[in-house]
Task: inverse folding
């Protein structure tokens, strides 16, 4: 068989990205915008994104940072779910480009101390979101439960929400367990899921198996080999319920290499070359276009990307550090490169 040396993909969408704030944000946005046409921007900033005014300002900052590398970059905005948000507030947020609200259970991940601690308290806001066509994105981990069981336990809440709000679109974010994969497959077409690059690469062995790898530490934790296998099967199968959300989450080297390290893998800069490698290895390269530039747009009711992006077979070494952050695959040689 002739070796493939070029791959053309739709200019992809990242349906889950963290770009942080202030000066640091500029480089993170540029890494993201040079590889993605649109990205769903997470609201776990400090302070959190909870008002139309804040979100409008944040969006402008992101657009300004992206301009140099991709003037067409489209940030898709989110707010952090809390109780008491009114219909008028949701309408104002929608007018500023908000497409989703993010449910963070209290304390399960970075900047989520102010997340939801009373499940039922957010039902009225979720009911409004259902009525208004705003997607509910869920960080599906149950606080306080043994770390490897948090997602499986919270999955029951996702199922409950899907049944209670049948018209609500729900995205179960960054899946990490076979149980959650099975649940998403079983629920209606209003429930979909994102899968990250790093959760397609490793089980918990990749975080603590033979050495402590702080730059692989993330939430939810990668889990057992059978969980990894279920995620890979879902991503490579061409099932429209599963699409890319990198959860690219930069933290400085100092915040990762310390006694109480921050959770997050910085993958934006290497996402596509790594995905090409993995889909090729799985014999599923024909499924990659929909995974990165099709199914997510369809689910969110957005037009599919019009532009394309080309990758060429040209080995390069991933830098050890980018903007003070150690990226996924740092120092590794990747065979595929953005043309
Ligand atoms: O590993 C993670 N990092 N998981 C999340 O859910 C949040 C993210 C972050 O913001 O750093
Ligand atoms: Zn995230």
Result:
């Amino acid at each position: 068989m002739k070796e493939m040396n070029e791959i053309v993909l739709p200019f992809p969408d990242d349906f889950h990205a963290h770009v942080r704030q202030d000066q640091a944000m500029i480089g993170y946005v540029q890494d993201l915008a040079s590889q993605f046409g649109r990205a769903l921007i997470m609201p776990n900033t400090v302070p959190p994104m909870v008002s139309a005014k804040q979100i409008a300002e944040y969006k402008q900052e992101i657009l300004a940072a992206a301009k140099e590398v991709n003037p067409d970059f489209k940030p898709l905005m989110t707010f952090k779910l809390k109780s008491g948000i009114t219909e008028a507030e949701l309408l104002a947020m929608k007018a500023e480009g908000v497409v989703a609200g993010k449910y963070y259970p209290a304390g399960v991940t970075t900047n989520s101390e102010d997340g939801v601690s009373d499940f039922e308290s957010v039902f009225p806001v979720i009911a409004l979101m259902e009525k208004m066509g705003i997607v509910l994105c869920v960080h599906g981990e149950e606080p306080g439960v043994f770390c490897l069981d948090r997602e499986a336990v919270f999955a029951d809440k996702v199922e409950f929400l899907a049944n209670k709000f049948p018209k609500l679109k729900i995205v179960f974010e960054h899946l990490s367990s076979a149980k959650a994969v099975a649940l998403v497959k079983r629920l209606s077409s209003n429930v979909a899921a994102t899968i990250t690059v790093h959760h397609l690469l490793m089980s918990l062995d990749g975080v603590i198996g033979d050495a402590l790898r702080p730059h692989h530490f993330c939430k939810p934790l990668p889990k057992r080999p059978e969980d990894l296998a279920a995620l890979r099967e879902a991503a490579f199968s061409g099932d429209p319920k599963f699409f890319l959300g990198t959860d690219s989450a930069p933290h400085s080297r100092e915040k990762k290499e310390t006694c109480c390290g921050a959770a997050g893998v910085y993958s934006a800069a290497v996402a596509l070359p790594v995905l090409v490698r993995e889909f090729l290895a799985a014999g599923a390269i024909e499924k990659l276009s929909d995974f990165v530039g099709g199914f997510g747009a369809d689910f969110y009711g957005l037009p599919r990307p019009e532009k394309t992006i080309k990758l060429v077979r040209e080995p390069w070494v991933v830098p050890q550090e980018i903007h003070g952050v150690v990226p996924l695959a740092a120092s590794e040689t990747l065979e595929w490169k953005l043309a």
Summary: The domain at 13-267 is CATH 3.20.20.140 (TIM Barrel). The longest strand covers residues 308-317. The radius of gyration is 19 Å. Residues 16, 18, 42, 247, 249 surround zinc ion (ligand 2) (CB under 6 Å).
